[in-house]
Amino acid sequence: LHFKVPVGTLVKEDGEVVADLTQHGEEYVAAYGGAGGKGNRFFLSNENRAPTLFTPGEPGQERVLHLELKTTAHAGLVGFPNAGKSSLLRAVSRARPAVAPYPFTTLNPHVGIVHYQDFEQISVADIPGLIKGAHQNRGLGMAFLRHIERCRFLLYVVDLSVSQPWIQLQDLKYELEQYKKGLSERPCVVIGNKIDLAQSKINLPLLKEHIDDRVIALSALTGDNLEELFVHLRELYDAYVKTEQSQGQSPMKW
């Protein structure tokens, strides 16, 4: 029997990873069938033209395996609920995650593909919104955080219209670092969303003063300044490809 699973599926046995299916077409033999028995044709002879004898087959292998999905994508949209991650993914790709004015609209990751004129494709994952204490599994934190591990670089989405938006970035990086050391240090860009709102224009220079990361201010709703995001997203991708090739590894392609 063959069972198809999504790319990024981990196969675990007794808590240990026995297979990590990160490439299209990869296979893992979960259990072997038992050796077949000898049918009645094996006992056919000139003396016994219609044998009724047979030998039973051996039982197949039995294993209890746990399958865990970690979404695989080049870039991960990381932010708190209602920061505009799903709207941004809809704006830059053909993915259509649900968008609504209440928290936790997205309960499962969605992956969209950003297409470039040279036919290069960059995958972007909309990670469900995190909350403070996510590394302690608050608000299904572990279920959401594990998908970020697969992302090669991160797009932090902060709501520019709220008071002190730089606090969002600090809290997000803290949750990532508590979940897995070094996760918050991956290549990134900070996306200040909702620049179409008046308060956002006031908060933008304050955000840039408080953080060292590059900030791209845009509006996922109106499409303002999406071009800058496309350019920098490609820069992050090209840097990732160059690093992988320099280490003798094959970059992930879509």
TrEMBL record:
Task: Specify the species.
Answer: Atlantisia rogersi (Inaccessible Island rail)
Listed GO molecular functions? GTP binding; GTPase activity; magnesium ion binding
The gene that this protein is the product of is: Mtg2
For the biological process aspect of GO, one term held by this record is: ribosome biogenesis
Q: Which PROSITE patterns match?
A: G_OBG, OBG
Where would one find the signal peptide in this protein? none
Domain OBG-type G, by residue range, is 73-238
| Annotated protein name in UniProt | MTG2 GTPase
According to the entry, every stretch annotated as the Obg domain falls at 1-72
For this UniProt record, the keywords arranged alphabetically read as follows: GTP-binding, Nucleotide-binding, Ribosome biogenesis
Which InterPro entries does the entry mention?
G_OBG (IPR031167), GTP-bd (IPR006073), GTP-bd_Obg/CgtA (IPR014100), GTP1_OBG_dom (IPR006169), GTP1_OBG_dom_sf (IPR036726), OBG_GTPase (IPR045086), P-loop_NTPase (IPR027417)
**GO CC, alphabetical:** mitochondrion
